Every structure is written in structure tokens, then in C-alpha cells.
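Example for tutorial group B:
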């Protein structure tokens, strides 16, 4: 497994290009542009202009073909969604004038539920209401099924483990190489290896249905108003036709536990008997996958996933 090639464009240069693309596509004048934030694979900007729709979000996608995939994911997830998914206005492929691809989307008012810390201080009842709405929206997606498992645009696998097991092994093998190269602490690999040794037990229950998943549904990608009403879900990441439980580990990510998202989902919908240990496995391997792909890491997240996986392995007498 190799690191994804990421364009080294700066936030400032991407902003200048975003202005040119918006003015070209909307035949308008950009009045104001504001950097909203970004991660390993893209930068997002709020752009105000003098013509309809007046405000848009421009996302500079730093990986080739990322914008077309994300646009397809957003459009697919938006079908029958009970929480709003931003409309995609257009995608713009890099050319002689632009060194990155762009996706232009509807601007959604509200704040994400991670960086707006005031949302952590709502009452328990309000948080339960919030969790109920978010998990209901997830289950609408998980209720949509496909004959094959795999990437959302090209699912070709008859069984979930036909897709996921080689993928996970590739992550493990790369993690071994990273430890040998001094790029990953060996104690992560120890727990990953122990979990891998128990793979057949952890994934002993057959995944019957290829379900539609968001792929990155943590609190940073849930937009809410000032009363903690969810108003939009944004930023899918490698959406798939997958085990529905592959979507659940993100519910514990960041401050997700403070809203009881995972607990609420499990209380409302059927899950496998090994769900807790499965999502701990998914979370640890996913964090390392993101590190491999982007070359960037948040060690605190790695440690959180490590401790959770170790805890679940011990509960199952596998550690």
C-alpha cells in the first residue's frame, strides 16, 4: 500500500484559483472568500459572489479524481436522505490554468459538531434527540443494498470479506514496514497483529447485505444549528457498498461519545454479536490506513483506537 500522491499547493494559491474558477463558471464577481478549513486531501472555502446562488463552497481536491468521486458520493447519499446533503453545482478538473481539481457545492449554514464546543453543553435529552436524528439518517443509507460489495462506483465483490480482508492485510503489511522504517511505534503493531490473529473470530458472522455507507460520519461532518438540530451531513470519504458496521466506528470518533451516537444506533437497530470488537478493529486499521494514504497522523486518535481495540480483545479473551 502506497501513500496517495497529494498536490503540494498552498492554501493561498488554491484560494486564488478558486476565485478564478467561480468567476468563470458563474460569470460573476467574487465579493469575498474565506478559508473554512481542510485536511490531508483538500481545502474548503466559502465564496460570496454577486449572482445566484450568491454563496457557495469551493473545495480544492489535492488528489487526482477525488472531486468526481466525492460528487458521486454526495449525489448518491442525497437520494432519500432525511438529513440534507449539500447539492453539487459542478466539478472542475485541473488544466493549464488550475493545478488542482475543484468541487463546487451548496453552502450550508450552521456549524459542525466538533469545532463548536458549545454543542457539548446541551442537555442529555437534547443530545439524545440529536443522536436519534443522526442515526435515523444513517439507517436510511444502511437500508439501501446492492448485489455486490466494494467501492461505491464499482462494486465487484460477492462477499464483504473478499473485499475487506485483503485490504486489511495490506494495511497490516504496510504497518510492519513502517515500524521497520521507524515511522510507526511498535506497540501499535503488537495490538494490530494480535487482532489479525483473531480475524476469523472477530468476523465470524457473515455480512448478509452490501449496504450504502457514508464512510466518515463523525461529528466534524455533521452540521447543526444553534439548537443542536442536525441540518446537513457533509464530506463523505470513500463511501462503499459495505458492512453497515464499517460506518459505525466513526460515531465514537472525536467527541462522538459525548452525544451517544454509537450507543443510540445500537439501541435502535440490529447489530452483530461481535459489533464492538469489529468496529474497534475497523477503527484501528482505518487510522493507520489514513496515515499511510496521507502521510499525516493525529497520534491522539491512534492511541484512542489502540486502547479501545486492546480493551475489546481483552474482553473477548483474545489478548
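The residue assignment follows.
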Amino acid at each position: 500500500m502506497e501513500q496517495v500522491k497529494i498536490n503540494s499547493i498552498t492554501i493561498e494559491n488554491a484560494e486564488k484559483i478558486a476565485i478564478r474558477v467561480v468567476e468563470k463558471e458563474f460569470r460573476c464577481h467574487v465579493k469575498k472568500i474565506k478559508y473554512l478549513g481542510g485536511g490531508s486531501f483538500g481545502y474548503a472555502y466559502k465564496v460570496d459572489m454577486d449572482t445566484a446562488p450568491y454563496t457557495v463552497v469551493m473545495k480544492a481536491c489535492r488528489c487526482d479524481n477525488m472531486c468526481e468521486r466525492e460528487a458521486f458520493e454526495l449525489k448518491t447519499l442525497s437520494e432519500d436522505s432525511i438529513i440534507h446533503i449539500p447539492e453539487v453545482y459542478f466539478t472542475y478538473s485541473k488544466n493549464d490554468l488550475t493545478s488542482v481539481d475543484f468541487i463546487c457545492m451548496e453552502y450550508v449554514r450552521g456549524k459542525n459538531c466538533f469545532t463548536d464546543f458549545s454543542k457539548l453543553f446541551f442537555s442529555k435529552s437534547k443530545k439524545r434527540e440529536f443522536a436519534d436524528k443522526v442515526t435515523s439518517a444513517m439507517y436510511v443509507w444502511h437500508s439501501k443494498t446492492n448485489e455486490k460489495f466494494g467501492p461505491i462506483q464499482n462494486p465487484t465483490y460477492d462477499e464483504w470479506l473478499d473485499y475487506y480482508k485483503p485490504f486489511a492485510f495490506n494495511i497490516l503489511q504496510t504497518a510492519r514496514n513502517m515500524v521497520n522504517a521507524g515511522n510507526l511505534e511498535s506497540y501499535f503493531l503488537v495490538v494490530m497483529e494480535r487482532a489479525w490473529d483473531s480475524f476469523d473470530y472477530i468476523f465470524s458472522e457473515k455480512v448478509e447485505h452490501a449496504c450504502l455507507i457514508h464512510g466518515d460520519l463523525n461529528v466534524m461532518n455533521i452540521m447543526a444549528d444553534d439548537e443542536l438540530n442536525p441540518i446537513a451531513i457533509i464530506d463523505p470519504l470513500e463511501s462503499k457498498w459495505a458492512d453497515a458496521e464499517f460506518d459505525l466506528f466513526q460515531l465514537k470518533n472525536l467527541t462522538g461519545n459525548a452525544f451517544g451516537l454509537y450507543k443510540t444506533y445500537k439501541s435502535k437497530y440490529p447489530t452483530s454479536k461481535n459489533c464492538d470488537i469489529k468496529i474497534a478493529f475497523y477503527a484501528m486499521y482505518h487510522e493507520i490506513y489514513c496515515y499511510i494514504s496521507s502521510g499525516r497522523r493525529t497520534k491522539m486518535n491512534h492511541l484512542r483506537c489502540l486502547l479501545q481495540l486492546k480493551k475489546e480483545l481483552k474482553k473477548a479473551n483474545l489478548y
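The CA atoms of residues 159 and 208 lie 8 Å apart. Compare this with the pattern of hydrophobic and polar residues in the output above.
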